[in-house]
Amino acid sequence: MAYVRRDAGTLTRTEKRRFVKAVLEVKRRGEYDELVRTHLTYFPSDGERGLRSAHMAPSFLPWHRRFLLEFERALRRADSSVTVPYWDWTRDRTKTSAPWTADLLGGNGRPSDRQVTTGPFAHREGHWTIKVGVTDEDFLTRDLGRARDPLDLPTKSELEWALKDPVYDVAPWDSTVTRGFRNKLEGWGTGRGSASWYNHNRVHRWVGGDMLGGASVNDPVFWLHHAFVDLQWYRWQRRHRGARYLPATPPGPADRQHGRVVARHQKLPPWDVTPDALEDVGRIYRYA
Q: What is the rounded CA–CA span in Å between residue 35 and residue 96?
């Protein structure tokens, strides 16, 4: 029977407590840091050689769907009642709304060094030390809203702009495409600076701190953010019945994307699963 992922803003006090406890247990077991390593390993961008499976590619959505399931299974081994909640950043848009409460993810980082000092993931609580990262800091950092260069979270209309595109993705299947649902949701735009970041990408930058770069998994909000992104894929599928993951077949030898993107029936590393198999997960979970 499918379990339910709920809006973080609707969680009860008990649900929040059990989720936090399960996350801390996954961290204690060492499984959490392995997930950080996985995300770092599959972070190659357009400019790098080889396969792109997690970002700047059609498989952005199925790759993170499978990644979320890895984390959720670890949580449920710790507490079978727990699922990954989602953060609706089109509605909960302030630095003090869900999920930035002391009983869930804690709040913003302090001005001096952006260290998070409130909530269960504050370093001083003794349970959340950054062991796998891109800096030498061992504490969680955030810069909600980017104090020195303010940035707003995506709006409902900006999300709708992505959802109404009836095509999943288009050639050349990278960060430069201006059509297709996948990149409009992932958020690689043209130009420079804030104006070129949409939806998913802009949220990472709004949170700041550890959410910038390949080690973004170190902030537990990563999972709540990606659960909401995953929900948008589900909503897009329901709106555009019959629309499928693209490309259906791999780019040919003469294509500059040959060997660089995952087609519908190809395996998504590091797992033995295809995008096709991840298009319908209704038997595993659903959204409230």
A: 28
Q: What is the DSSP letter of 125?
A: G
pTM of the model: 0.97
Query: Cβ distance 12 to 81 under 8 Å?
Result: no
Query: Which residues are within 8 A (CB) of 68 and not within 5 positions of it... i.e. 6 or more apart?
Result: 84, 223, 226, 227, 230
- Domains of the chain, residue spans: 3-287
**Blockwise average pLDDT, block size 10, the chain, 288 residues:** 97 98 98 97 82 96 98 98 98 97 98 97 96 89 95 96 98 96 95 82 97 96 98 98 97 94 97 97 96
Fold for domain 3-287? di-copper center containing domain from catechol oxidase (1.10.1280)
Question: Other C-beta atoms within 10 Å of 26: how many?
Answer: 23
